[in-house]
Amino acid sequence: MTPPDQEAICAAVARHRDEILEWTKALIRFPSENRPPHGAEKEAQEFVLAACGKLGWETGTFAPDEAEGIQNHPSFLPGRNYDNGRKNVVAVWRGDGTGRGRSILFSGHTDVAPYEPDDWKVCRPYEPVVKGKRLYGRGSCDMKGGIAASFWGLRILAELGWRPAGDVIFETVVDEEFAGGNGTLASRLAGYNADLAVLTEPTRMEVCPACLGAFLGDLVIKGKGGMPYMGSAIPNPITGAARAIELFSAWEEKWRNENSHPLFEGPDKILNVVLWHVDSTNEGEFTQMGTPLFTKIAWITWCYPGMTEKRFLEEFERFWTTHASEDDVLKQFDMKIDRTYHYVKAWETDAGSPAVNAVTEAFRRFTGTEPPVGGAAFSCDLAIYGEAGGMPSVILGPRGDNLHASDEWVNIDDILDLTGIFALLAASWSG
How confident is the model at residue 1 (pLDDT cuts 50, 70, 90)? Predict the structure, then answer.
């Protein structure tokens, strides 16, 4: 079947502009937060399921832990709870059976980061508001705006009378946040794979065939608890933590200087370290008024594709072992590194592959501009699509800001442009 031309798709996007925006706002209104080990995606997923069902696509739902073999897979993250109806939604628009067309997958996650810290000023987290060209609300950019664009791109193709030659798969998965990935992994193990996967995470309208990886852990500084009643000072692990926090800046500089990648060039693509939690108590334990037994610093370090977990841990442990033995403050304490969550693997699809070229061409045709191509400066599930799913995988999503923070927003024009881009991509790839 001859695919709809750019003019027809552009007109359809303009015609449905208000509907696309209202659909996105409706999806944002569901407080589909991921608060490990639990998540509240159920109602948002039911909304998506109903929308797909109305288009006549084959639909299915399943919890991540229902996928055969998932608990033995090296990418599986144990300890998550799916008892409250957290299920993936998969919809398949079947090809015509001729074998002429290639299959394509559009994928996104409906779970969002919790709304805290609660210093929202533009709107309440789940009461979306439009101001100018921005749509505000938790999950608007990460990543319900991208989900809306891919859904409406396919819906517009159906409205225009186009039918795919190859299968077109649309899915929304659960449990991506907090280094999750079980929802994405479950769909891959269930066989919902294609000749091209498009992940609609927010890339600021950059075609990204690669993403960063992330290592997550705790640096534990242990001393001796108590109160110095008898005049003898007790080395305080909080003081040790203060010194360690200073040294994390040295680690960050070292890490940046020793690593590079051609798809990650420019000041917005440098490797960062984030310290996200400091604590001196065990869960459920009463906090004494005195010197704590330990202080724990939770950290995240990102990496470029090609870095293995083994190599990172060797370098990271060497850095801290050296300072623990030589630094005047730190050598008063015992130190150890505990891994938390699991390694979120970096990934790279060949930037010159037909899959990446197809995405850039659809972008070029719909917008009339040359898309930037580079690496996504965040970690996500891209490696699961590429490795477990065996798919050339590309990330493309809208601009926005304040992800995982108050007053998150997404660019409305980008949602509309992506709707047209995804429609052209699906029609050209699977036509």
Answer: low
Q: Tally the domains of the chain.
A: 2
Q: Where are the alpha helices (DSSP H) in 275-410?
A: 309-326, 354-367, 382-383
pLDDT tens digits for range 169-187: 999 999 999 999 999 999 9
Which residues, in sequence order, are CB contacts of 232 under 8 Å at separation 6+? none
Q: Are 263 and 211 in contact (CB under 8 A)?
A: no
Measured distance CA(168)–CA(93) in Å, rounded: 5
CA angle, residues 39, 40, 44, in degrees to nearest 5: 135
Query: The domain spanning residue 401 has which CATH number?
Result: 3.40.630.10
Look at residue 372 and tell me if it is in a domain. Answer: no
Contacts of 257 (CB under 8 A, 6+ apart): none
Per-residue pLDDT at 192 exceeds 70: yes
Mean pLDDT of 358-375: 97
Residue 323 belongs to domain with CATH number: 3.30.70.360
| CA distance linking residue 40 with residue 58, whole number of Å | 24
Q: Residue 19, class by beta-carbon neighbours within 10 Å (0-12 exposed, 13-18 middle, 19+ buried)? A: exposed
Residues 171 and 268 in one domain: no
Structure tokens at 246: 């200073």
